[in-house]
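Researcher: Re-running this chain for the archive, since the previous output was lost when a drive failed. Same request as before.
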Amino acid sequence: MLYFGLIGSCLSHSFSRNFFTAKFAAEQRAADYSLIEVDDISSIKNVIAKNGLVGFNVTIPYKESIIPYLDELSSEAKAIGAVNCVVVRDGKTIGYNTDIKGIEASIGWLSTDENTKALILGSGGASKAVQYILKKMGIEFKIVSRDISRGDITYTQLTAEIIREHQLIINTTPVGTAPNIEEAPMIDYTALGESHQLFDLVYNPATTEFLRRGEAQGANTMNGILMLQTQAIASWHIWQRELNIE
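Model: Regenerated structure tokens:
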């Protein structure tokens, strides 16, 4: 039996276990995927040993803070500064970032061109992956953060004029995730219009309050389901390759 899992906090509403359980069953694989909540990421080596993990995903709030406790990083994970996929091989932990695959696939479904400007809500690990992809696509962006030292502007500095100037708005924060489905990022939704596109990395619920308010203003919206599926499959491909799983 091969043991995989998701490392994070408050995981009861994650779809990852259901996704991989169904995948392993369909492929008749002797593998298990667990949701593993940890309070202190510095204990990750003990968590790996206790659960017999050969690979795992990482989610909020540990995508950045896990890095000092890993043995190696892929070039992309190093460039981004965030990890969401880890391989345990020959006693070493190797960090990767497959969020970028999911983000790239999702933005690919939206209508963007060389004139598109984006606002990234949040400055954590997922935000870093979004920044990496937008730079790759040549899309100009601003980072909106509660902490000005981690972004370009704060939420209180985010005016209606700035919102109108940026057609793509991406929520990389967990705000609005179940069970807190009535919450939404604190922006001026009346400044949104039909020219706006809202992408929420949150996938549970399928229509977050952020997206619902955008739709009410005529904006085009996308949730995080495609991202979830794409990054999960990319993680599986890495585990297969690095662990020689046929």
